[in-house]
Design a protein that fits this description.
There is one protein chain. This protein has 308 residues and is an alpha/beta fold. 40% of the residues lie in helices and 7% in strands. β3 and β4 form a beta hairpin. The longest helix is centred in the N-terminal third of the chain and has 18 residues. The structure holds zinc ion.
């Protein structure tokens, strides 16, 4: 059972049957165990399972160290390459190269040629997600939360309240207000959205992704990640355009989620795809359509929804 994370522990060729070693690891949710599992899944020709194992490291309850993240991203890039979509791993490779400390990992990263089949259309913003503690989230009503399982789609909203402030504290207060509104006025278990993006382009964690959200009504919430861009993106006196930083952060977040959960650009929805509403607003909608189109060029695309 690996405890430390290094090339010797994670990337060593299995001494015996990799399937057997994998079985021994199955009950261990630690970061070293998940990294080793990802490596073994690759050896067994199971890149999708390897991607899942790395996702547990990158997005699990314990934040990985830079060294651990470098290994996770390296392994995920290998898995995407094995699946025939090496371009999906471009961002992972870039991050892995920036973070790698282990000399053997650094050497292996140097040996991988950059994928050339598709240019990466999305800016490589560092997606630091502000944790719930950063906005002093109230505890959710656990009894009313439903496990989401593996997400299969995402939906973009606006908060429909004019908001331009770029200070961290003001955004935190704004998100607290949304949570209060959702829990007290609407009676929901927690804030309805999984992510929120403020005018400075910060990404904030809303409801944890392991719980189903409350943002698209009823069954529409199944497997559906809710993203709220803070602001009121309608025309007229009370409206505003999204900031460039917000649009850039939205692109980075959406691309990251597509990679993380392995779904295509056809799984990008706007709230108005589910019901008659202006949400996410005519001034944000074109950016979403454009983003879906660009990401769709890298795989099978359905961008029929979301006409501006
Ligand atoms: Zn909405």
């Amino acid at each position: 059972m690996p405890r430390a994370v290094s090339a010797t522990t994670i990337l060593a060729e299995p001494a015996g049957d990799p399937a057997q070693e994998l079985e021994l690891l199955a009950r261990h949710r630690t970061i070293p165990a998940r990294l080793r599992a990802a490596f073994l899944e690759l050896r067994l020709g199971e890149p999708a399972a390897a991607i899942d194992a790395t996702a547990e490291v990158l997005y699990g309850p314990v934040r990985p160290s830079a060294n651990e993240e470098a290994f996770a991203r390296y392994l995920r890039a290998l898995a995407y390459a094995r699946k025939g979509t090496p371009g999906y791993g471009n961002y992972d490779l870039e991050r892995a190269r920036a973070l790698a400390l282990d000399p053997e990992l650094q050497r292996r990263l140097r040996e991988i040629a950059p994928a050339t089949e598709a240019p990466d259309p999305v800016s490589l913003a560092d997606l630091a997600v502000q944790p719930r503690s950063a906005w002093r989230a109230a505890a959710p009503n656990r009894r009313d939360l439903e496990p989401m399982g593996r997400p299969t789609r995402l939906t973009i909203h606006h908060s429909a309240v004019y908001f331009r402030d770029t200070k961290t504290a003001t955004s935190a207060a704004q998100i607290q207000r949304i949570q209060r509104d959702h829990m007290q006025s609407s009676g929901w278990a927690d804030i309805g959205y999984h992510y929120l993006i403020d005018p400075a382009g910060r990404v904030w964690q809303g409801r944890e992704v392991r719980w189903q959200g409350a943002h698209a009504e009823g069954r529409n919430n199944v497997g559906n990640i809710g993203i709220c861009v803070l602001g009121n993106f309608v025309r007229g006196r009370t409206g505003q355009a999204p900031s460039r930083a917000q649009v850039a952060a939205l692109r980075a977040l959406v691309q990251d989620l597509l990679q993380r959960y392995d779904f295509g650009a056809d799984a990008i929805y706007c709230h108005r795809d589910f019901k008659p509403t202006e949400c996410p607003g005519p001034l944000l909608q074109p950016a979403v359509v454009q983003l879906a189109r660009e990401l769709g060029q890298r795989g099978p695309a359905r961008v029929a929804h979301g006409q501006p």
